[in-house]
Amino acid sequence: MADPKSRRSLGRWRLSAIIMAIVSLVLFICLIAILVMTHTRKKKITTCGSKEKGQYGHIDLKESDNPSVFHHLTSKEIEGLMKYLYSQKTLNLVKAADMKVNTSYVFLSELFLPSKNSVLDYLDKKGTQPPREARVVMLRGDKQTPDIEEIIVGPLPNPTKHRPNPNRKQSIPFIYRPVTGPEHVGSIEMATVKVDQVLGTMFEEVYDGKLFNCNSKCLMIRYITPVSSVQSGEKRRKTWYWLSQSAEYFILHPLDFSVLVDLDGPNYTIEQVWFNGKLYKTLTDVLDYYKANKGSILKVKFPDVNRDLFSTMNQRGTPPISPPLRNPVQVSPDGKRYNVKDRHVEYMSWQFDFGMSPIRGPQLFDLRFKNERIAYELSLQELSVFYAGYKPMQALANYLDGVGLIGIQAKGLVPGVDCPTDATYFSSTFQVESDGPFSFENAFCLFEYNMGMPLRRHHSYSFAYGRFYEGMESTVLILRTIAVIINYDYVIDFMFYPNGAMQIKVVSTGYVLGTFYTDNESKYSFKLHENFAANIHQHLFNFKVDLDIQGTANRFATANIETEDIPNKFSKDSSARLIQHRFSTSLKTTEKDAAYKFDFETPKYLLVYKEDVKSRKTYQKSKSYRILNNGMSKLILPEGKGNEPSISWARNQLAITKYKDLEPTSSSLYSILDAEDPIVHFQNFIDDNEPIVDEDLVAWVTMGIHHIPHTEDLPVTPTPGMELSFYLLPYNYFDEDPAISSLNAVRIEPKDNTKLKTSININRYGVKQSMQCVPEKNKYDEEITENPSLIIDTEGGTFL
């Protein structure tokens, strides 16, 4: 039997065991509780905007069977259109597979807008919706005298008739045709074969590469410089084709060789050759020169193609932060605050329709604020880049990108980089050198964006000055597209502010256009890398702004800012003078009067207004919108010289013309080659000098920037400093800032403004401040893995 001491020890052990068991049980229960609470909390965190939708967040992306009057051509309409065209035996059209330069075929089709009066009658007076029609461009290469024909076909989707395009000459010279698929592919193949036959061995010795059977050292003839007749001095269709090394990215690996190809006639011919700083008549002349001067000609090694090559966009160098941390992101905690149906957008007080022209790119129509139309049309008209250089490839490089089809080049926007991940993405549908419709995904994105600064604010801290704070975040709705024209990427934004203002912004990025560096290029470019330079150039952008302020009877005036020198009656010195600012208003009565060139000596406000509609009768101020161009650039090329007539819209930073259905665009599909006799000569819009008082007015806004490339443009030009924009700003249009009605504001003030020591009231107008949601998962990587054609060409056989 155990002694008392042993029993006491046993008792203490049992007690300790019981206590430990109880503690363990408590800890277990606590752990279970924590897990349950964590699980419960996790379940409560939802995806932002996933709750049941109310007034906003309704997104319908289906292609409508009854599209609006502004919707670009639908797939169904294109199918009906092509069926009709192929049934018209007199047109003698061949299918896409049989397209050749000497055949007749449909180059492209796009929406043909009805007359503005008929559209306004339908929209505003409940008239009949005008029939939808298509503008069709046909290349008639099989005619005895080949030409370009444009016809209007309708009504869609099942056309029954066609007529000549009233906005074009009956017959357009065949030489003005845009770059076509058959011609582009055929001429490049011809040039590549003929050059290789004569100079293939020379290329291996001089450029360390081959045009055929090249393995990892491939050369290619790809980039083009179209030559207009005013540049060549003869009515022929010609293009310089450049030689470059096939490496990422080939634009930054040009070689000192190119050929001038004559595209007229049944067979393409090489008319001139540029090599090693000189012009030659034939390829044989080049070979003879090379054999006689082998030892003195610079040999160029093919680049070591790897991830660190200067021309690639692979990450390299020491990261500024490592390991990497994620970028800040924006979320919409209550979901999207806009609606979309049939390319019609509703956002806060804004409404508008949008679409994509294959030629000119983005187009917006019927833009309304608080249900009042501000603009009938707001659209890109043309992008142009004029280069300079010593070699013909750069010296003659005057590009008007409408010829390359701006709208077709807008596709593949990447969520999280090009646009926020939660943006709404839209496709665009086209018919270009095809038998039917095709679509490009992610051509537009639409998103709301917090600008990171107040739209308005004032902080009165001092007791003497009132003690309050009132402010409102600046959030905008942005419709964005990005057009990639070979090497340059143009980010185009249409931005809608809550106070009735609009901003139209263009930002350039992408690869600079380069040349093989020689000392003769020093006036036109800096040497950016071994054997590589990029030439000075000017980007120019033209937009159409058809403002309808309180109707179509508008006026244009400038508020001229001046100085005055008057006696200073407030001074004790009787001879004192007072010099100060003043302004005066100048009504422009004709189109020539309204052609505006910026002058620092005469600053002005540019105003479009409705004379007999006032903001407040007691104030007697006409309702106006101000055009503010923050992207002005002077075109210093002399008027009428070279290709300048093709961009006569760039002579003024703003032109105001009377609206005409026969003047729908400032440029044309043919502008790069028609400088001698432009199909659309914008200067004629001004020179007929029509009266513009109380008329339907159109503003044509031009922005631009000179670019002298520098080493930081490698590998691609960054966007800071390349941003251009113009604004449409309400000016005496509203009695006060219309955004004062927004609930997305905050006011902070004392409960008792008569006491120094007092508590405060915080008024957020019922807008929740807490956010218990997570952004929707970005599934883009999975989507492009399953469907690579969303981001890269998987079919081939097209130059678009």
Dominant shape? globular
Q: State the CATH class of the largest domain.
A: Mainly Beta
The CATH homologous superfamily of the largest domain is called: Copper amine oxidase, catalytic domain
Give the CATH topology of the largest domain: Beta-galactosidase, Chain A, domain 5
The pLDDT mean sits at 92
- Radius of gyration using CA atoms only: 33 Å
Strand content: 35-45%
> What's the helical proportion of residues?
10-25%
What's the number of extended β-strand segments? 37
Explain what this protein looks like in three dimensions.
The structure is a single chain. With 800 residues, the protein is of the alpha+beta class. It has 3 domains: 68-176, Nuclear Transport Factor 2, Chain: A; 181-296, Nuclear Transport Factor 2, Chain: A, CATH 3.10.450; 340-511 and 537-707 and 717-742 and 775-786, Distorted Sandwich (Beta-galactosidase, Chain A, domain 5), CATH 2.70.98.20. The protein has 9 helices and 37 strands. The strands form 5 sheets. The protein has a 17-stranded antiparallel beta sheet that branches. Strands 2, 13, 14, 15, 16, 17, 18, 27, 32 and 33 form a 10-stranded mixed beta sheet that branches. α4 packs parallel to α6. The termini are far apart.
List keywords for this structure.
single chain, 800 residues, alpha+beta, Nuclear Transport Factor 2, Chain: A, Beta-galactosidase, Chain A, domain 5, 3 domains, 17-stranded antiparallel beta sheet, ten-stranded mixed beta sheet, 9 helices, globular
